[in-house]
Amino acid sequence: RVPGQESKVMEAKAKIEAGDYSYNVEDPHVSASLLKLWFRQLGEPFFNSEFYEKCVKASKSVKQSVAIAKSLPEGHFRVLKYLISFLKTICSPENVKFTKMTGHNVALVFAPCLLRCPSDNPNVVYTNQQSERDVIQNLLESL
């Protein structure tokens, strides 16, 4: 949950946007921040408004959360499956001692990147945060 140094994140982003994928970042926080930034800057949230309310309603059910994920467009589902697989590695028991990132922590960090509350009401946004995190944690457990 430690952010990467902003100047290094922006430098890496600029290189990638220019087609230069040869950047060498030794700080894993920069890479993590870059990944989160990519998801946050998508023109439309990864789970768009069509899926957002379904996710919030299904947040207490692992089975329903997985079913919603599987109903995403194929390209979205493939990216999500790959991302979840990667995040499972980050929060696996053998890596937690190094990453300090449990499934709960990973869900807390990535939920806002994948699910964006369409409401401008701060009370709704705050209330939905728990459900958003639960959905991501469900996917970490069962996708």
**How many beta-strand segments?**
0
Indicate the percent of residues in helices: over 70%
Order of helices and strands: HHHHHHHH
Biggest sheet character: none
Could you give the distance between the termini? 23 Å
Radius of gyration: 16 Å
Structural class: mainly alpha
Dominant shape = globular
Question: What is the arithmetic mean of pLDDT?
Answer: 94
The proportion of strand residues reads under 5%
Number of helices: 8
**Which spans of ≥5 residues are poorly predicted at pLDDT below 50?**
none
Could you explain how this protein is built, in words?
This protein is an all-alpha fold and 143 residues long. The chain is built from eight helices and no strands. Helix 1 (6-17) crosses helix 2 and helix 7 (103-114) crosses helix 8 (122-142).
What's the short story on this structure?
With 143 residues, this protein is mainly α. 71% of the residues lie in helices and 0% in strands.
Features:
143 residues, mainly alpha
How do the helices and strands line up, and which of them pair or pack?
Blueprint: H1 6-17, H2 28-40, H3 49-58, H4 62-70, H5 74-90, H6 93-99, H7 103-114, H8 122-142
Helix pairs in contact: 1-2, 2-7, 3-4, 3-8, 4-8, 7-8
